[in-house]
Write a structure and sequence with these properties.
YaeB-like fold; about 35% strand; alpha+beta; about 110 residues; 5-stranded mixed sheet
Length: about 110
């Protein structure tokens, strides 16, 4: 599986990693789990949008520093090309929902 990150995601991850020291390791664990989990039956994953070749998911990220699932990750999963591209990461206490404009911009670039 290939993993990619949008520049916005990298900035957000860097900023959050200063607060939550275990976050880089937690992302690596997440990368291993995102491809093997059944998205329809797992309560920690929600499908935002899905088309013939791409699935955009929002997932709860378990952060060991916080000891709970208050971080959210938005990523795209393309099983055909075997790639996962990270779009957004945010702390649930700072931001209520994902950035819908960023997701729609991402989808328009993919088509």
């Amino acid at each position: 599986m290939n993993y990619k990150e949008l520049p916005e995601f990298v900035r957000e991850l860097k900023k959050l990693s200063k607060k939550y020291r275990t976050l880089p390791d937690d992302i690596e664990v997440f990368k291993k789990n995102v491809v093997v989990v059944d998205l329809c039956r797992n309560k920690n994953f929600a499908i935002i949008t899905q088309n013939s070749h791409l699935t955009i998911i929002k997932a709860r990220l378990a952060c060991r520093y916080l000891k709970r699932n208050t971080l959210r990750v938005v990523c795209s999963l393309c099983r055909k090309e075997e790639t996962v591209e990270f779009i957004e990461i945010y702390f649930k206490g700072d931001k209520e929902n994902e950035d819908r404009k960023r997701i729609s911009d991402y989808l328009s670039r993919q088509n």
